[in-house]
Amino acid sequence: MTPLMITLLIVAGIVILIAIGYLNNVVENNKLEKKKLRLELNDRLRRCGEITETFPGQLMTPALKLLLTRLELNLNQRILAQDKGNAAVRERLGELEAEIAKGEGIAVNNPPTPIQTEAKAKDVRFLLEALHSQITRAAQDGFLPANEAKHWIREVRHILVLLHIEFFNNLGQAALQAEQPGQARLAFERGVQYLRKQPEPAVYQEQLQYMEKLLGRANAMVLDKTAPTEDDHNELTDGLKEVEPEWKKKVIYD
């Protein structure tokens, strides 16, 4: 065997080793990417389910329920593509397809959840943020057409406004029932200011007028509560009654 052949064999061996290493690296990277994708899909599916199950009934519409069901269907389809033998996912797909076939007649079983505390309002806001993220990702994946995604982004913003309206109204009404008109006025003021700051205030004109009416009522109650009455007696008022005005004194002594 000549030195040239030996050199060629060594070079060939090195090339083969590099190729094997590269292929192994590609295989490992593919495994990691698939694992990462499965984790991501399952996390998105979990978040989608959380929105579907815990969203307040008074803010959930058949159209929104249908959208969430479609998003869940898409995620399950992608999970099944990664794990074709998953019988539970396959069964769930059948259930989701049956629900989607109902269209706007899909059942909305979410119970109403009054937004009476700031903590509850924050919880629902977080759900809306998660919904916004789900819609954005579905559009990026090509599942939702751009025009439909834009429509739902606007709808999420609208629901956020409705959330604030309910929160400020409930907060103010609770304060009125507790005979705390000052706190009620503060809540209604926040509601009025929030609605006036909306990019399209005309859309919420009716709600704004209602909130302004409540604000006026609370303000009148505050003024009525703080105004002195004829029966109010204290050292200051009694003392003032005893002091004759200067103009009277001038008339008497001139």
What does this structure look like?
This protein is an all-alpha fold and 254 residues long. It has two domains: 8-102; 114-227, no CATH class. Helix content is 77%, strand content 0%. The chain has nine helices and no strands. The protein has helices spanning 3-54, 62-82, 87-100, 118-140, 146-177, 181-196, 205-226, 235-242, 246-253. Mean pLDDT is 87; it is low at 240-245 and 247-254.
Q: Helix content range of the residues, please?
A: over 70%
Overall body shape: elongated
- Describe the largest sheet: none
How many domains?
2
Strand content: under 5%
pLDDT below 50 for ≥5 consecutive residues: which ranges? 240-245, 247-254
Keywords: Membrane, Transmembrane, Transmembrane helix
Transmembrane segments: 6-27
